[in-house]
Amino acid sequence: MNMLAKFSRFLADGNIPNPGRNAPDQLTAKVNVVLGIAAWAGTAAGVAGVLITGAMMAISVKRGESSEHMSRLGMVLGGCVLVATAGPLVAFVFN
Q1: Predicted TM-score of the model (pTM)
Q2: Which of 37, 39, 46, 62 could form a disulfide with 80, with the two C-beta atoms 3.0–4.6 Å apart?
Q3: What is the DSSP string of 21-57?
Q4: Residue 10: which residues within 8 A CB-CB, separation 6 or more?
Q5: Do 34 and 64 touch, CB atoms closer than 8 A?
Q6: 3-state class (DSSP) for residue 2
Q7: What SS3 state is found at 86?
């Protein structure tokens, strides 16, 4: 019998293991610290990106250059939205 048929039979029997969803408290605390640092770094990078893009826009206007800063600003703001909604989005998908 081929592998696909064996796997299909295994799924049909309903003997699929279902491990618990509770992680150890020590691991949960460490993961929360790492995710908190990553969220803070993402927010700081977004603020820095907006500030840098604004400074570049001001300099190019003073020089009389035309540049595509609005697309850069859109990318930075899109990244900010992604960082801000990452937690709720993952919670929505996995709950």
Answers
A1: 0.63
A2: 46
A3: -PPPHHHHHHHHHHHHHHHHHHHHHHHHHHHHHHHHH
A4: 16
A5: no
A6: coil
A7: helix
